[in-house]
C-alpha cells in the first residue's frame, strides 16, 4: 500500500482599513491529508495527489511514504493529518476507521461498499469527555463515503430491470460480492421470474457458459464483474454468436464508460448506470481534460479523454474540493493549524479537539463536482445525487434516462429528441426467410416474350407473393422516415414453420433459424402463438383470421327418370305385377263360379229366363287396380268367396302401398342424409369423414391447447392417426379433393378464401373456430421491432395492406371464377322437379296412351256406324267429331241413313215402343196396388 501525506495550503487575507492607512496581512496555513491506496491503484493515487495539490491554490509541500501494511500507518510519527482517505480493502478500512474514531480524525472513502450486516446501523457517538466542549459537537464513528451507497445503486439497477420489463433473463457474476449484489437487485425487483445463474471465471474459458445461454434462448443478461474484464467476457460471448443486435446486456458496474468505445464495436445492446454524464466527460472542453494526463503516469505527457478515468479516480477531485471548502469554513471560526498531539495513534495521544468540527462541516457542506451534487446525511452517506442510464443501442451511445436518489422512484426516461437520433441507427441489412406457399411466397413466374398481356412482378428478382409485396412496402415506408434499411430473401427452403423438439431441446424450421440468428425476419403466414412468443418477438398483426374447415362440395347426382321406382327392387315390382294378374284371374274365376255374383237383369221379372254376371275380366282387373291404388271401385262382389279374395288383396295392397310411400320418402331425402358435415360438431360425432391439419402448425396447437373437451378429443384422434396430418396447406388441399368427401382439412380462413377463388369444387364449412393473427417474427429482444411495427401500422392506416391482399387473392392467378347461383326459395327438405320427373313422364305417357285408346274407340264407333247405316266414312267422322267436340251440347243426334228401308227402321221403333209401353203398364199397376 501507498500512504500519501499531502499538505493543504490555505492563504488568508486580512484587509483592515482606516481613512488614511490601508494594509494587507497574509497568513499561510499548511495541513496534512493522508491517503492510503492499494498497490494496483496507481491512477487513483495520482489523481488524489494531483487533485489535492491543485485544490491548494498555491504551492504545497508534499511528503509521501509507502507501507506494505496499511495498518502500520501509525508507525509514522511525523504524520499529523486532519483527514485520512482510504484504504479500499474492507478489512483494513475498518481498522483505519476505528483509529480515526479514537483520534477524532475524519475518515473519507470513495468506493462501493455493501452494508455489513454485523455492523450497527447507527454510528456510535463519543462520550461527553471525548466531545468538544467549546462546540458541543460529538465525533461520529463513521466513514464519509463520496461514492453513492451500494443499496441505492442496486435499487436503481432493480428499477432499470423494471424499466426494460425484463422477465426471463440470465445472471453472470465472478465473485461472492457480485452474487450478493445480484441477490440485492433481485430482492428489490421480483422473485417471480425464472433465472439462469452462472459464475464466470476470469482466468478460464467461459465459452460454454455463453453456449448454454444460447441453448436456453437467454438473450437478456446481467453481468456483474470488474470493468477491466467486461470486454473479455463479451468477446467470448461474441465468438459463440451471443453478441449482436438482439442480445441485451446490463453491466453492474459504474465504470463501464471507460470501455464504452470498445463496447460500441460489439454492435449490441448494452446498458449501465453511472454517476457522471458521459457526454460532458467526452467534451474536449471539460475542466479535467488538461489535468487527467497526470493521473495516469507521473511522467505522462499524453492527455487521455476524461471518459477513460474510473469513477473512483474522478472522485478524488470532488474530495479535494469538498474538504477544502469545509476546511475554509472551519478556519473562519478557529485556527486549527497547530496540533496538540505528537502523532495520531500514540499511546498517550489525545483526540484532536477540532476533529468533530471538521467532520461536521464536511457533512454539512454542499458542493458540485465532476460527479454532480455532493451532499451527505448524518451517517456519512451520499444523498441527493443523480444516476445516469447509459445505453448502447447497436452502435449508438446515449444517455436515455436518470434515477434520482432523493425520490428513489423509477427510471425517468429522457431520450434524445434530436432528429438525427434515429438516423444514427438506421444502417442495417436484413436477411428475410419465408415458407413457400401460394399466395404468400413462391418462385417468381417469368413472363414469356411473346405474351403482351403478362405483367411481371418487380418487387423482387427471384420471388413474388403477398409476403414479398408486404416486405417491399414496409421497407419503402421506413425509407420515407430516413431509415436506410436494406433486405434480401434467403433462398433456403423451409418445410415447417417451426416446432420444439424435446429430444434435441431446440426449435426447427423458421423459428429455429431466428433463434440461431441466421435471419432477421420471418415473413409468411406465421401465426402469433403464446408458445412462439416465448422464444421470438412478433410485430403487430398484419392480417387477422380464424380456423375453419375446408371440404369438398357434394356433387349433385341427377336422379334417374324413374327414381320413384327405387323404393322397390325390380324383383318386387315383377312379383307385384304378377300378383296383380293372378288375383285378377282368381277373382274372375271365383265370380264366374259363385252363384251370388249372377244377378237378374230384369228386377221386375220374378222368374227370369237368364241371369247376368257383371264380373268380366275387365271389371276384375279394374277392381284389383283400384284397390292397390287405394282408390276403390264402383262395383263390388257379393259372394263370400269373391269378397274373401278382395279382402286378401286389399290387405296386401295396404302393406305394399304404405311401405312404398315410406320407402319413397326415405329415398327422396337420401341426398340430405349423405351430407355428413355442416359444422365442426358434425366431424367430432362421426367416423366416416377423416379430418386433419398441418403437423406442428398453430392450427393443430389450437386443438391441443384448447380447454374444450370436444377439441381435445379431435386432437387425440388426429395424433393417433398421424396419416391425416400433412406438411403444407397445398398437400391438405390435394387430399380434400382426392378424398371426394372422405377427408376434411382444418385451415386458416384466409388460405381457404384463396383456394375457393381458384377451385369451385371446394367449400368452407361452418364458422371460424377461433380468432388469431399473422405477424412478422424476429429474434427475441430485436431492437428493430418498433420500426417494423410503425411501418405496418402506417400501411394499415392507408389501406395498403388491403390493396396487397386484394391483389393476390382476387386478381392474380385466378383461373376459374366461381359463380354460385343460389335458390332463394330453396327450403331444406323440399323436393324439386328432378325428383318427380319420372312420375310426370309416366303421367304424360299414360295420358297419351289414353288418347290413343280413345281415338281407337272413336274410330271403331265410326266404323260401326258406317257398316250399320251404310254411309260414308267421311260423313260419319265429321258429324261424330263435331258432336263430340261441341262441349256446350249434352245430347247428340243418332246418325241415320235416310235411304234405308222403313221396315228396318220401324221394326226397331216398334220394339222400342213395346218396351216403353210395358214399363208404363208396370208403373200403373204399382199405383193401383197402393
TrEMBL record:
Subcellular location per the Swiss-Prot or TrEMBL entry: Membrane; Postsynaptic cell membrane
InterPro entries tied to this protein: ANF_lig-bd_rcpt, Glu/Gly-bd, Ionotropic_Glu_rcpt, Iontro_rcpt_C, Peripla_BP_I
Pfam hit, one: Lig_chan-Glu_bd
Gene Ontology CC annotations of this record: postsynaptic membrane
Molecular function (Gene Ontology), one example: ligand-gated monoatomic ion channel activity
Superkingdom of origin: Eukaryota
SUPFAM superfamilies: Periplasmic binding protein-like I, Periplasmic binding protein-like II
Record-stated family: Belongs to the glutamate-gated ion channel (TC 1.A.10.1) family.
Name assigned to this protein: Glutamate receptor ionotropic, kainate 2-like
Organism: Danaus plexippus plexippus
Amino acid at each position: 500500500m501507498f500512504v500519501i501525506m499531502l499538505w493543504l495550503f490555505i492563504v488568508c487575507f486580512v484587509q483592515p482599513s482606516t481613512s488614511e492607512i490601508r494594509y494587507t496581512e497574509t497568513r499561510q496555513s499548511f495541513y496534512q491529508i493522508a491517503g492510503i491506496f492499494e498497490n494496483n491503484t496507481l491512477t487513483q493515487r495520482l489523481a488524489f495527489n494531483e487533485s489535492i495539490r491543485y485544490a491548494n491554490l498555491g504551492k504545497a509541500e508534499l511528503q509521501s511514504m509507502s507501507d506494505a501494511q496499511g495498518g502500520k500507518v501509525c508507525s509514522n510519527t511525523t504524520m499529523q493529518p486532519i483527514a485520512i482517505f482510504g484504504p479500499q480493502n474492507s478489512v483494513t478500512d475498518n481498522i483505519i476507521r476505528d483509529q480515526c474514531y479514537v483520534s477524532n480524525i475524519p475518515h473519507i472513502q470513495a468506493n462501493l461498499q455493501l452494508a455489513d450486516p454485523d455492523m450497527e446501523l447507527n454510528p456510535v457517538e463519543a462520550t461527553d469527555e471525548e466531545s468538544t466542549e467549546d462546540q458541543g459537537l460529538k465525533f461520529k464513528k463513521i466513514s464519509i463515503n463520496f461514492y453513492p451507497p451500494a443499496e441505492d445503486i442496486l435499487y436503481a439497477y432493480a428499477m432499470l430491470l423494471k424499466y426494460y420489463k425484463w422477465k426471463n433473463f440470465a445472471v453472470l457474476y465472478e465473485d461472492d460480492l457480485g452474487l450478493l449484489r445480484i441477490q440485492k437487485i433481485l430482492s428489490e425487483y421480483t422473485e417471480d421470474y425464472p433465472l439462469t445463474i452462472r459464475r464466470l471465471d476470469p482466468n478460464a474459458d467461459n465459452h460454454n457458459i455463453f453456449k448454454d445461454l444460447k441453448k436456453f434462448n437467454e438473450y437478456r443478461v446481467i453481468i456483474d464483474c470488474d470493468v477491466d474484464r467486461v470486454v473479455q467476457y463479451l468477446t467470448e460471448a461474441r465468438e459463440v454468436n451471443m453478441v449482436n443486435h438482439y442480445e441485451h446486456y446490463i453491466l453492474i458496474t459504474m465504470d463501464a464508460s471507460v470501455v464504452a468505445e470498445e463496447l460500441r464495436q460489439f454492435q449490441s445492446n448494452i446498458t449501465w448506470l453511472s454517476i457522471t454524464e458521459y457526454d460532458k466527460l467526452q467534451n474536449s472542453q471539460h475542466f479535467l481534460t488538461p489535468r487527467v494526463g497526470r493521473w495516469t503516469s507521473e511522467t505522462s505527457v499524453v492527455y487521455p479523454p476524461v471518459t477513460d478515468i474510473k469513477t473512483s479516480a474522478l472522485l478524488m477531485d470532488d474530495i479535494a474540493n469538498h474538504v477544502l471548502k469545509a476546511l475554509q469554513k472551519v478556519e473562519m471560526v478557529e485556527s486549527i493549524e497547530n496540533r496538540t498531539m505528537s502523532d495520531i495513534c500514540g499511546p498517550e495521544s489525545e483526540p484532536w479537539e477540532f476533529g468533530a468540527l471538521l467532520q461536521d462541516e464536511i457533512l454539512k457542506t454542499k458542493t458540485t463536482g465532476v460527479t454532480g451534487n455532493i451532499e451527505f446525511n448524518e451517517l456519512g452517506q451520499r444523498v441527493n445525487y443523480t444516476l445516469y442510464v447509459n445505453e448502447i443501442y447497436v452502435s449508438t451511445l446515449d444517455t436515455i434516462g436518470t434515477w434520482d436518489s432523493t425520490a428513489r422512484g423509477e427510471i425517468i426516461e429522457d431520450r434524445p429528441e434530436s432528429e438525427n437520433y434515429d438516423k444514427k441507427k438506421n444502417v442495417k441489412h436484413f436477411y428475410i426467410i419465408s415458407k413457400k406457399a401460394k399466395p404468400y411466397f413462391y418462385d417468381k413466374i417469368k413472363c414469356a416474350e411473346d405474351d403482351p398481356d403478362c405483367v411481371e412482378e418487380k418487387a423482387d428478382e427471384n420471388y413474388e407473393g403477398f409476403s414479398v409485396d408486404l416486405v417491399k412496402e414496409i421497407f419503402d415506408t421506413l425509407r420515407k422516415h430516413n431509415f436506410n434499411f436494406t433486405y434480401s430473401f434467403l433462398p433456403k427452403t423451409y418445410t415447417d414453420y417451426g416446432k420444439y423438439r424435446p429430444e434435441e431441446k431446440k426449435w426447427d424450421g423458421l423459428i429455429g433459424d431466428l433463434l440461431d440468428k441466421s435471419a432477421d425476419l420471418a415473413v409468411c403466414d406465421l401465426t402469433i402463438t403464446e408458445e412462439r412468443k416465448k422464444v421470438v418477438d412478433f410485430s403487430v398483426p398484419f392480417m387477422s383470421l380464424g380456423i375453419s374447415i375446408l371440404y369438398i362440395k357434394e356433387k349433385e347426382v341427377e336422379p334417374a327418370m324413374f327414381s320413384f321406382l327405387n323404393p322397390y327392387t325390380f324383383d318386387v315390382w315383377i312379383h307385384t305385377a304378377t300378383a296383380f294378374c293372378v288375383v285378377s284371374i282368381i277373382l274372375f274365376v271365383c265370380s264366374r263360379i259363385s252363384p251370388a255374383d249372377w244377378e237378374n237383369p230384369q228386377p221386375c221379372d220374378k222368374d227370369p229366363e237368364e241371369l247376368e254376371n257383371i264380373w268380366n275380366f275387365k271389371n276384375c282387373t279394374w277392381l284389383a287396380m283400384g284397390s292397390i291404388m287405394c282408390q276403390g271401385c264402383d262395383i263390388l262382389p257379393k259372394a263370400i268367396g269373391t269378397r274373401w279374395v278382395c279382402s286378401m288383396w286389399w290387405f296386401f295392397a295396404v302393406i305394399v302401398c304404405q311401405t312404398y310411400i315410406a320407402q319413397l320418402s326415405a329415398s327422396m331425402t337420401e341426398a340430405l342424409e349423405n351430407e355428413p358435415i355442416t359444422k365442426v360438431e358434425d366431424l367430432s360425432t362421426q367416423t366416416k369423414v377423416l379430418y386433419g391439419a398441418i403437423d406442428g402448425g398453430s392450427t393443430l396447437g389450437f386443438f391441443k391447447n384448447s380447454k374444450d373437451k370436444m377439441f381435445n378429443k379431435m386432437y387425440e384422434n388426429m395424433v393417433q392417426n398421424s396419416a391425416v396430418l400433412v406438411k403444407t396447406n397445398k398437400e391438405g388441399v390435394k387430399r380434400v379433393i382426392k378424398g371426394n368427401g372422405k377427408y376434411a382439412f382444418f385451415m386458416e380462413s384466409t388460405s381457404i378464401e384463396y383456394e375457393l377463388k381458384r377451385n369451385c369444387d371446394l367449400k368452407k364449412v361452418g364458422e371460424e373456430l377461433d380468432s388469431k393473427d399473422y405477424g412478422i417474427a424476429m429474434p427475441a429482444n430485436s431492437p428493430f421491432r418498433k420500426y417494423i411495427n410503425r411501418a405496418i401500422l402506417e400501411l394499415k392506416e392507408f389501406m395498403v395492406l388491403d390493396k396487397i391482399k386484394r391483389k393476390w387473392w382476387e386478381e392474380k392467378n385466378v383461373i376459374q371464377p366461381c359463380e354460385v347461383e343460389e335458390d332463394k326459395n330453396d327450403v331444406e327438405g323440399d323436393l324439386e322437379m328432378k325428383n318427380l320427373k319420372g312420375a310426370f313422364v309416366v303421367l304424360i305417357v299414360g295420358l297419351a296412351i289414353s288418347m290413343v285408346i280413345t281415338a281407337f274407340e272413336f274410330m271403331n264407333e265410326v266404323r260401326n256406324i258406317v257398316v250399320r247405316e251404310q254411309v260414308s266414312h267421311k260423313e260419319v267422322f265429321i258429324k261424330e267429331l263435331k258432336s263430340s267436340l261441341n262441349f256446350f251440347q249434352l245430347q247428340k243426334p243418332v246418325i241415320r241413313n235416310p235411304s234405308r228401308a222403313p221396315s228396318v227402321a220401324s221394326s226397331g221403333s216398334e220394339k222400342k215402343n213395346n218396351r216403353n209401353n210395358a214399363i208404363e203398364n208396370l208403373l200403373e199397376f204399382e199405383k193401383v196396388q197402393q
